[in-house]
Specification:
Length: 274
Protein backbone atom coordinates (compact mmCIF):
# COMPACT_ATOMS: atom_id res chain seq x y z
CA UNK A 1 0.00 0.00 0.00
CA UNK A 2 1.39 3.40 -1.03
CA UNK A 3 2.13 5.85 1.78
CA UNK A 4 1.46 9.59 1.63
CA UNK A 5 3.33 11.18 4.54
CA UNK A 6 4.24 14.60 3.15
CA UNK A 7 2.49 17.61 1.64
CA UNK A 8 3.76 20.73 -0.13
CA UNK A 9 1.97 24.07 0.15
CA UNK A 10 3.19 26.66 -2.39
CA UNK A 11 2.92 30.07 -0.67
CA UNK A 12 5.53 32.32 -2.29
CA UNK A 13 3.25 34.23 -4.66
CA UNK A 14 2.82 37.99 -4.73
CA UNK A 15 -0.96 38.03 -4.36
CA UNK A 16 -1.29 40.89 -6.83
CA UNK A 17 -5.09 40.57 -7.13
CA UNK A 18 -5.34 41.74 -3.50
CA UNK A 19 -2.95 44.69 -3.62
CA UNK A 20 -2.41 46.90 -1.74
CA UNK A 21 -3.39 44.61 1.19
CA UNK A 22 -0.86 41.92 0.18
CA UNK A 23 1.98 44.46 0.29
CA UNK A 24 2.23 43.62 4.01
CA UNK A 25 -0.19 40.72 4.61
CA UNK A 26 0.37 37.52 2.56
CA UNK A 27 -2.88 36.35 1.00
CA UNK A 28 -2.33 32.95 2.63
CA UNK A 29 -2.79 34.72 5.97
CA UNK A 30 -6.13 36.28 5.06
CA UNK A 31 -8.71 35.06 7.56
CA UNK A 32 -11.70 32.87 6.91
CA UNK A 33 -13.56 33.18 10.18
CA UNK A 34 -10.84 33.56 12.80
CA UNK A 35 -8.23 31.35 11.08
CA UNK A 36 -5.98 32.18 8.14
CA UNK A 37 -6.47 30.31 4.86
CA UNK A 38 -3.15 28.57 5.48
CA UNK A 39 -4.25 27.32 8.92
CA UNK A 40 -7.48 25.89 7.50
CA UNK A 41 -5.55 24.07 4.78
CA UNK A 42 -3.13 22.59 7.31
CA UNK A 43 -6.09 21.24 9.29
CA UNK A 44 -7.44 19.67 6.09
CA UNK A 45 -4.07 18.03 5.46
CA UNK A 46 -3.80 16.67 9.00
CA UNK A 47 -7.34 15.31 8.84
CA UNK A 48 -6.16 13.30 5.80
CA UNK A 49 -3.48 11.64 7.94
CA UNK A 50 -0.51 13.63 6.59
CA UNK A 51 1.77 14.82 9.39
CA UNK A 52 4.64 16.55 7.56
CA UNK A 53 4.23 19.71 5.50
CA UNK A 54 6.70 21.84 3.53
CA UNK A 55 5.56 25.43 3.06
CA UNK A 56 7.32 27.02 0.10
CA UNK A 57 7.46 30.71 0.89
CA UNK A 58 9.55 33.80 0.13
CA UNK A 59 11.86 35.91 2.33
CA UNK A 60 9.51 38.89 1.96
CA UNK A 61 6.64 36.94 3.55
CA UNK A 62 8.08 36.63 7.07
CA UNK A 63 4.67 36.80 8.75
CA UNK A 64 3.90 33.28 7.53
CA UNK A 65 6.76 31.84 9.60
CA UNK A 66 5.98 34.19 12.50
CA UNK A 67 2.47 32.74 12.76
CA UNK A 68 3.89 29.41 13.91
CA UNK A 69 6.36 30.85 16.41
CA UNK A 70 5.65 31.23 20.13
CA UNK A 71 4.50 34.63 21.40
CA UNK A 72 5.47 35.46 24.98
CA UNK A 73 2.75 38.10 25.21
CA UNK A 74 -0.01 35.76 24.05
CA UNK A 75 1.33 32.90 26.17
CA UNK A 76 1.01 35.11 29.23
CA UNK A 77 -2.52 36.11 28.22
CA UNK A 78 -3.46 32.47 27.75
CA UNK A 79 -2.87 31.78 31.46
CA UNK A 80 -5.96 33.79 32.40
CA UNK A 81 -7.97 33.65 29.17
CA UNK A 82 -9.18 30.18 28.08
CA UNK A 83 -10.20 31.49 24.65
CA UNK A 84 -6.65 32.64 23.94
CA UNK A 85 -5.24 29.32 25.16
CA UNK A 86 -7.60 27.38 22.89
CA UNK A 87 -6.68 29.50 19.85
CA UNK A 88 -2.94 29.04 20.45
CA UNK A 89 -3.41 25.30 20.99
CA UNK A 90 -5.04 25.02 17.55
CA UNK A 91 -1.74 26.14 15.99
CA UNK A 92 0.30 23.62 18.00
CA UNK A 93 -2.01 20.82 16.86
CA UNK A 94 -1.15 21.33 13.19
CA UNK A 95 1.21 18.99 11.27
CA UNK A 96 5.00 19.26 11.53
CA UNK A 97 5.94 22.27 9.43
CA UNK A 98 9.12 22.90 7.47
CA UNK A 99 9.93 26.00 5.44
CA UNK A 100 11.88 26.46 2.23
CA UNK A 101 12.29 29.65 0.20
CA UNK A 102 11.49 30.09 -3.45
CA UNK A 103 13.97 32.93 -3.89
CA UNK A 104 12.86 33.59 -7.47
CA UNK A 105 9.19 33.27 -8.29
CA UNK A 106 9.46 30.92 -11.26
CA UNK A 107 6.03 29.30 -11.26
CA UNK A 108 4.13 26.52 -9.50
CA UNK A 109 6.27 23.73 -10.92
CA UNK A 110 9.42 25.43 -9.64
CA UNK A 111 7.86 25.99 -6.19
CA UNK A 112 7.20 22.25 -5.89
CA UNK A 113 10.73 21.48 -7.07
CA UNK A 114 12.10 23.72 -4.28
CA UNK A 115 10.64 21.27 -1.72
CA UNK A 116 12.02 18.10 -3.32
CA UNK A 117 14.70 17.39 -0.70
CA UNK A 118 12.11 17.17 2.08
CA UNK A 119 9.84 14.62 0.44
CA UNK A 120 10.46 11.12 1.85
CA UNK A 121 7.29 9.25 0.91
CA UNK A 122 6.62 7.55 -2.44
CA UNK A 123 3.64 9.86 -3.01
CA UNK A 124 3.09 13.38 -1.73
CA UNK A 125 0.27 15.89 -1.66
CA UNK A 126 0.31 19.36 -3.22
CA UNK A 127 -2.39 21.73 -1.97
CA UNK A 128 -2.99 25.36 -2.89
CA UNK A 129 -4.20 27.61 -0.04
CA UNK A 130 -6.25 29.75 -2.46
CA UNK A 131 -8.63 26.87 -2.96
CA UNK A 132 -10.98 26.28 -0.02
CA UNK A 133 -12.94 23.03 0.18
CA UNK A 134 -15.62 22.34 2.77
CA UNK A 135 -16.71 18.72 3.09
CA UNK A 136 -20.35 18.07 3.78
CA UNK A 137 -21.63 16.28 6.86
CA UNK A 138 -20.32 12.72 6.88
CA UNK A 139 -18.03 13.34 3.88
CA UNK A 140 -14.27 12.82 3.79
CA UNK A 141 -12.35 15.93 2.79
CA UNK A 142 -10.95 16.01 -0.73
CA UNK A 143 -7.35 15.27 0.29
CA UNK A 144 -8.47 12.21 2.27
CA UNK A 145 -10.32 10.95 -0.79
CA UNK A 146 -7.26 11.46 -3.01
CA UNK A 147 -4.96 9.72 -0.51
CA UNK A 148 -7.30 6.74 -0.27
CA UNK A 149 -7.42 6.40 -4.05
CA UNK A 150 -3.62 6.50 -4.28
CA UNK A 151 -3.40 3.75 -1.65
CA UNK A 152 -5.98 1.69 -3.55
CA UNK A 153 -4.62 2.17 -7.08
CA UNK A 154 -0.91 3.00 -6.55
CA UNK A 155 -1.17 5.81 -9.07
CA UNK A 156 -1.10 9.62 -9.00
CA UNK A 157 -4.55 11.16 -8.53
CA UNK A 158 -5.64 14.79 -8.87
CA UNK A 159 -8.88 16.48 -7.92
CA UNK A 160 -11.10 17.65 -10.76
CA UNK A 161 -14.12 19.93 -10.61
CA UNK A 162 -16.84 20.76 -13.11
CA UNK A 163 -17.46 24.49 -13.53
CA UNK A 164 -19.53 26.62 -15.93
CA UNK A 165 -18.01 26.57 -19.41
CA UNK A 166 -17.66 30.36 -19.49
CA UNK A 167 -15.11 30.20 -16.65
CA UNK A 168 -12.72 27.54 -18.04
CA UNK A 169 -10.30 30.14 -19.43
CA UNK A 170 -9.26 30.95 -15.84
CA UNK A 171 -7.96 27.44 -15.00
CA UNK A 172 -6.11 24.34 -16.15
CA UNK A 173 -8.67 22.14 -17.93
CA UNK A 174 -8.46 18.34 -18.26
CA UNK A 175 -9.62 15.85 -20.85
CA UNK A 176 -10.92 12.69 -19.17
CA UNK A 177 -11.32 9.19 -20.60
CA UNK A 178 -12.58 5.86 -19.25
CA UNK A 179 -13.49 5.30 -15.63
CA UNK A 180 -11.09 3.47 -13.31
CA UNK A 181 -12.44 2.57 -9.85
CA UNK A 182 -14.40 5.80 -9.42
CA UNK A 183 -11.77 7.96 -11.14
CA UNK A 184 -11.20 8.94 -14.77
CA UNK A 185 -7.99 8.73 -16.78
CA UNK A 186 -6.48 12.14 -17.54
CA UNK A 187 -5.48 12.21 -21.21
CA UNK A 188 -4.74 15.90 -21.73
CA UNK A 189 -4.42 19.17 -19.80
CA UNK A 190 -4.68 22.62 -21.34
CA UNK A 191 -3.73 25.67 -19.30
CA UNK A 192 -6.35 28.45 -19.43
CA UNK A 193 -7.83 27.58 -22.83
CA UNK A 194 -10.31 29.68 -24.73
CA UNK A 195 -13.81 28.35 -24.24
CA UNK A 196 -13.97 26.87 -27.75
CA UNK A 197 -10.61 25.12 -27.27
CA UNK A 198 -11.35 23.55 -23.86
CA UNK A 199 -11.51 19.73 -23.89
CA UNK A 200 -14.15 19.74 -21.14
CA UNK A 201 -15.47 21.86 -18.27
CA UNK A 202 -13.46 19.89 -15.69
CA UNK A 203 -10.67 21.92 -14.09
CA UNK A 204 -7.79 21.26 -11.69
CA UNK A 205 -8.79 23.00 -8.43
CA UNK A 206 -5.52 22.78 -6.52
CA UNK A 207 -5.45 19.38 -4.81
CA UNK A 208 -3.01 16.73 -6.04
CA UNK A 209 -1.40 13.53 -4.75
CA UNK A 210 1.57 12.79 -6.97
CA UNK A 211 4.31 10.24 -7.45
CA UNK A 212 7.88 11.30 -6.69
CA UNK A 213 8.66 10.52 -10.33
CA UNK A 214 7.25 13.95 -11.23
CA UNK A 215 10.39 15.55 -9.79
CA UNK A 216 12.45 14.03 -12.64
CA UNK A 217 10.36 15.82 -15.24
CA UNK A 218 10.28 19.06 -13.24
CA UNK A 219 14.09 19.03 -13.05
CA UNK A 220 14.44 18.36 -16.76
CA UNK A 221 11.91 21.06 -17.53
CA UNK A 222 13.74 23.59 -15.39
CA UNK A 223 17.06 22.86 -17.13
CA UNK A 224 15.46 23.54 -20.52
CA UNK A 225 13.28 26.44 -19.36
CA UNK A 226 13.04 29.24 -21.91
CA UNK A 227 10.09 31.17 -20.45
CA UNK A 228 9.84 32.85 -17.04
CA UNK A 229 7.85 30.13 -15.24
CA UNK A 230 7.97 26.35 -14.87
CA UNK A 231 4.41 25.07 -15.15
CA UNK A 232 3.15 22.11 -13.18
CA UNK A 233 0.76 21.31 -16.03
CA UNK A 234 3.58 20.07 -18.30
CA UNK A 235 4.83 17.61 -15.68
CA UNK A 236 1.31 16.40 -14.92
CA UNK A 237 1.06 15.54 -18.61
CA UNK A 238 4.35 13.65 -18.27
CA UNK A 239 2.78 11.54 -15.52
CA UNK A 240 -0.36 11.02 -17.59
CA UNK A 241 1.68 9.66 -20.49
CA UNK A 242 4.09 7.52 -18.44
CA UNK A 243 2.94 6.06 -15.12
CA UNK A 244 -0.61 7.37 -15.53
CA UNK A 245 -2.68 10.13 -13.93
CA UNK A 246 -6.23 9.84 -12.64
CA UNK A 247 -8.83 12.49 -11.90
CA UNK A 248 -11.23 12.27 -8.96
CA UNK A 249 -14.28 14.54 -9.02
CA UNK A 250 -14.46 16.86 -6.00
CA UNK A 251 -17.85 16.80 -4.30
CA UNK A 252 -17.07 19.24 -1.47
CA UNK A 253 -18.20 22.86 -1.52
CA UNK A 254 -15.40 24.95 -3.02
CA UNK A 255 -14.36 28.60 -3.06
CA UNK A 256 -11.60 30.11 -5.19
CA UNK A 257 -10.30 32.66 -2.66
CA UNK A 258 -7.45 33.66 -4.96
CA UNK A 259 -10.01 36.00 -6.53
CA UNK A 260 -11.59 38.80 -4.48
CA UNK A 261 -15.13 37.71 -5.34
CA UNK A 262 -14.38 34.12 -4.29
CA UNK A 263 -12.82 35.29 -1.03
CA UNK A 264 -15.92 37.34 -0.21
CA UNK A 265 -18.16 34.36 -1.02
CA UNK A 266 -16.16 32.20 1.40
CA UNK A 267 -16.37 34.86 4.12
CA UNK A 268 -20.14 35.14 3.68
CA UNK A 269 -20.52 31.36 3.84
CA UNK A 270 -18.57 31.13 7.11
CA UNK A 271 -20.42 34.14 8.55
CA UNK A 272 -23.78 32.44 7.94
CA UNK A 273 -22.54 29.19 9.53
CA UNK A 274 -21.28 30.86 12.70
Amino acid sequence: MSKVDWAIIPAAGLGTRFLPATKTVPKEMFPIGSKPLLHNLLEEIKEAGINNVVIVTHPEKASIEAYFEDSKTLSEAAKSKPGVAKALESIKNLPNIHFVYQEERRGLGHAILCAKEFIKSEYFCVALPDEVFIAGSGQQNIISRLVNKVKELNQSVVATLKIPMEKVSQYGVVALAEEVSGCFKVTDIIEKPAQDKAPSNSILPGRYVLSQSIFTDLEEGFKKLTQKELYLTDSLLFLAKTSGLLGLEAISKRFDTGRPEGYLEAQNYYAKKS
